[in-house]
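Researcher: Let's do a round of design. I'm pasting the C-alpha cells now; please hold your answer until I've finished.
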C-alpha cells in the first residue's frame, strides 16, 4: 500500500515537473542546441579513434619487435647448439619461450586493437551519416518554422484588413440600397395608381385642342395679313393705271396750242 502511494506520488511529481519543462522548452532552441552538440561530438570521436589507432600502432610495433627478438633468440640457440654449448642454448631457449608467449599476447592485443579501430571507423561513419541526417532534419524543421512564422505574420497582417467585416458591411449597404429602391418604386406605383388616368387623358386632349386653336389662329392671322398685302398691291396698281389718262388729257391741249400757232402764222 505504501509502495503504491509512493509510486503514485513520484508519478505525480514527474508529471508536474515534466509539464513545466515541456512548457519551458523552445523547439527551435532545442534543435539548434542538438545541432551544436552533434557537431561538438565529432572532434571527441576523432580523438577516441586516434587513441585507438595509436594503441594499434604501438601494439604493431611491439609485435614486430617480439618477432625480431624471437628470430634472434632462435638464431642464437642454433649457434649455441652448433658450438656444443647446450648450457647457453638452454638459457636462450627459456628466453625464447617467454618471448614467444609475449609475442602471442601482443599479436592477440594487436588483433583486438585492429578490430576496435575498424569498429570505431564504422561507428564514426554511421554516426556521421546519422548526424548529417539529424542536422538536415533539424535545418528543414527550422526553415519550415521560419516559413510558418513568416506566413503567420502575413496572416496577421491580412487579418488586420477585416475582410469579413468589410464583406458584411458591404452586403448590408447593398441590401439597404436595394430595399430603399424597392420602397421608392412601390411608392411611385402607388402614386400612379392613385391618379385618375381618364382625367389625365382629358387634360392631354384639352392641351391638344388648345394647341390646334392656336395653330388655326396663326393661320387666320397669316391669311388676313396676306389679304391686306394683296389689297395694298391692287391699290398701287390702280394708281399706276390713272397716270396715262391725265397724259391723254394734256395731249389735246398740246395739239390745240400747236394748231393755234400754225393759224397765227
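Researcher: That's everything. Go ahead.
Model: Designed sequence:
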Amino acid at each position: 500500500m505504501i509502495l503504491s502511494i509512493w509510486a503514485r506520488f513520484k508519478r505525480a511529481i514527474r508529471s508536474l515537473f515534466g509539464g513545466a519543462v515541456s512548457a519551458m522548452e523552445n523547439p527551435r532552441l532545442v534543435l539548434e542546441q542538438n545541432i551544436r552538440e552533434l557537431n561538438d561530438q565529432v572532434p571527441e570521436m576523432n580523438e577516441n579513434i586516434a587513441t585507438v589507432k595509436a594503441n594499434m600502432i604501438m601494439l604493431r610495433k611491439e609485435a614486430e619487435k617480439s618477432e625480431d627478438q624471437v628470430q634472434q633468440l632462435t638464431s642464437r640457440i642454433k649457434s649455441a647448439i652448433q658450438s656444443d654449448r647446450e648450457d647457453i642454448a638452454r638459457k636462450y631457449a627459456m628466453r625464447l619461450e617467454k618471448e614467444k608467449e609475449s609475442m602471442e599476447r601482443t599479436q592477440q592485443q594487436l588483433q583486438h586493437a585492429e578490430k576496435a579501430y575498424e569498429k570505431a571507423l564504422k561507428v564514426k561513419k554511421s554516426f556521421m551519416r546519422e548526424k548529417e541526417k539529424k542536422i538536415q532534419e533539424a535545418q528543414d524543421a527550422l526553415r519550415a518554422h521560419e516559413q510558418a512564422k513568416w506566413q503567420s505574420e502575413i496572416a496577421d497582417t491580412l487579418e488586420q484588413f477585416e475582410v469579413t467585416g468589410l464583406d458584411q458591411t458591404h452586403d448590408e449597404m447593398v441590401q439597404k440600397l436595394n430595399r430603399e429602391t424597392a420602397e421608392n418604386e412601390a411608392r411611385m406605383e402607388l402614386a400612379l395608381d392613385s391618379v385618375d388616368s381618364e382625367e389625365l387623358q382629358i387634360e392631354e386632349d384639352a392641351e391638344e385642342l388648345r394647341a390646334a386653336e392656336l395653330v388655326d389662329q396663326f393661320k387666320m392671322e397669316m391669311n388676313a395679313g396676306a389679304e391686306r398685302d394683296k389689297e395694298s398691291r391692287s391699290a398701287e396698281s390702280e394708281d399706276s393705271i390713272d397716270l396715262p389718262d391725265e397724259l391723254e388729257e394734256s395731249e389735246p391741249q398740246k395739239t390745240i396750242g400747236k394748231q393755234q400757232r400754225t393759224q397765227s402764222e
